[in-house]
Amino acid sequence: MNATDRKVLVWDLPVRVGHWLLATCFVVAWLTGESEEWRLVHVLAGGGAVGVVLFRLLWGLFGSRYALFVDFISGPRAAWCYLKSLLGSKPMHCVGHNPAGGWAIVALLGLALVAGATGWTVYQDIGGEWLAELHEGAANAMLLVVLIHLAGVLVGSLAHRENLVRPMLTGRKDGGAGDGILGSRPVAAMLLLAWVAAVAWWMSL
Ligand code: HEM
Ligand code: HEM
Asked: 126 CA distance to ligand 1 centroid (A)?
C-alpha cells in the first residue's frame, strides 16, 4: 500500500470496459424505465447490465490481481478504518479498490442482478405486482449506491490528491515497483463484449 510517483497497470481491460458498459447500461435503463415506447431499449440496456455483472462475478474469481474479490472484499472493520483514515493527514492509500469502495461494488453488482432478474420476470409476465415493486425498489436503491459511489470517487480523489477516474480509462494508477499487473487481457475483454451482447439479446426475447 505504498504510494509512489510511479504509474503501474492496475485495471485490466475487462474491468475498465465492464465498468463503462455497466455505467452506460445503468443510465440508459434508468432513463427509459418508465416509457412503454422505449421498452426494448430498456430491456437491452438492463440485460447488458446483467451480462456485465455475470462476467464480473467470474472475473472476481479468475481475473487479474486487483479484479479479484479477495483483493478488495474485506470486513466492516477494514472499511471503517479506511473511512476514518480519510479524516486524518495520512489517508490509507490502496493500489486496487479501497475496502469501503469494495462494499459499494458488492452492493452495485448485487442490486443490478436483482433489478435485472425482477425486470425480466415482469417483462415475461411471470409473478405478481410485487416483482414490479421490487424491480423499482432495486433500481432506486442502485441509484442511491451509484450516487454514494460517485461521492466516494470524488472524496477519494481529493484525499489522495490522485485523479481516480483517469485510471478507469487508462488502467494506470500510482503504485510501487511490483504492484502492477502483467497484461491488460484484451481477449477476455472481447469475450466480455460478445457475452454482454448475447445476454442482452436473450433477455429481450
Ligand atoms: C453510473 C453508474 C456506475 C456504476 C453502476 C458504477 C459501478 C462501478 C463498479 C462495479 C466498480 C468496480 C469496478 C470493478 O472492479 O470491476 C466501479 C469502480 C469505479 N468507478 Fe464506477 N460506476 C458508475 C459510474 C461511474 C462514473 C460516472 C465514474 C466517474 C466519474 C466512476 C468512477 C469509478 C472509479 C474511479 C472506480 C474505481 C474506484 C477505485 O479507484 O477503487 N463510476 N464503479
Ligand atoms: C440495471 C438494470 C435495470 C434498471 C436500473 C431498471 C430500472 C427500471 C426503472 C427505474 C423502471 C421504472 C419503474 C417504475 O417507475 O414503474 C423500470 C421498469 C421496467 N423494467 Fe427495468 N431496469 C433494469 C433492468 C431491466 C431488465 C433486464 C428488464 C427485462 C428484461 C426490465 C424490464 C422492465 C419492465 C418490463 C418495466 C415496467 C414495469 C412496470 O410496468 O411496472 N428492466 N426499470
From this structure: 32
